[in-house]
Amino acid sequence: MDPGLCGTCRHAKRIETARSTFWMCQRAADEPRVFAKYPRLPVVGCGGYEGREIG
Ligand code: SF4
User: Fold this and answer.
1) pTM of the complete model
2) What is the pLDDT, as a whole number, of residue 31?
3) Beta strands per DSSP E along the chain
4) CA angle 6, 3, 35 (to 5 degrees)
5) Which domain holds residue 30?
6) pLDDT, position 54
7) Residue 51 is assigned to a structural domain of this protein
């Protein structure tokens, strides 16, 4: 599964289980109204995206 933007976002955390891989948005903890904890993938547009290399 291609996670889209979450794949390179510093706020994303990949969670692997025996059955599948989830991508958890860590911004959802602070802004649950804006961000889904487990966004529907692939994420193609996100106002909270920040690349991992930045900062
Ligand atoms: S901020 Fe957006 S791109 Fe980043 S992990 Fe959350 S949903 Fe994915």
Assistant:
1) 0.88
2) 97
3) 12-16, 21-25
4) 45
5) 1-46
6) 53
7) no
Q: Does residue 27 sit in helix, strand or coil?
A: helix
Residue 27 CB–ligand 1 contact under 6 Å: yes
Q: How many structural domains compose the chain? A: 1
Residues of the chain with pLDDT under 70: 54-55
Ligand 1 pocket, residue 12 CB under 6 Å: yes
Cβ–Cβ < 8 Å for 51, 8: yes
Q: Tokens 């692997």 correspond to what residue?
A: 16
Tell me how far the alpha carbon of residue 6 lies from the centroid of ligand 1, in angstroms. Answer: 5
Rounded distance from Cα 55 to ligand 1 centre (Å): 16
